[in-house]
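Input.
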Amino acid sequence: MNRTLSQSIIDAGRWIDSQGWCPATGGNFSARIDQQSALVTASGRHKGQLTPQDLLQVDMQGQPIDSPLKPSAETLLHTRLYQLDPQIGAVLHTHSVASTVLSRLAKGEWFTLEGYEMQKSLAGNHSHAAEIRLALFDNTQDMAALADRLSERWQQQPLAWGFLVRGHGLYAWGQDMAQARRHLEGLEFLFACELEMKRLGAN
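Output.
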């Protein structure tokens, strides 16, 4: 097992848990090993207490490689992202209150943000004035079907930074774990701002 990638997932898990973005055993994280495989968190593990024994290697169909551990069904979304964009090196799936609530309140297929300086935390953005759009998918327990819907949306327009699943949470990614963490942190700050704006009746 790649120790550097393993430690990057463990460190991300502790940080994300400290933020309260992955309660109970929710969420799952991964890092690309190469074009054929990725390192992912096993199903049912608390993300703030990960060890190398809680990680396994999977192929790009989400199947374990030489491991008795069971990957989450949501691993299919991680591996589909790796297949859709060879530049993606890490994926973080979280269940924060802000992302979960906002994903239920939003209508349509896109969640939009604009006017925030923190938008510049997202790669390629250099101004608060740009409109940020995140794809929004309806929740389902059929991960293969959701992965196919992700592919369909991607063919229409490649996605950037992350996407939301209604009533479920956020998938954020980057070229490496550091960028994935930056995108996650930036998006969560933006979500928290939007939720507070709604609470105050400002939007």
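The radius of gyration is 16 Å.
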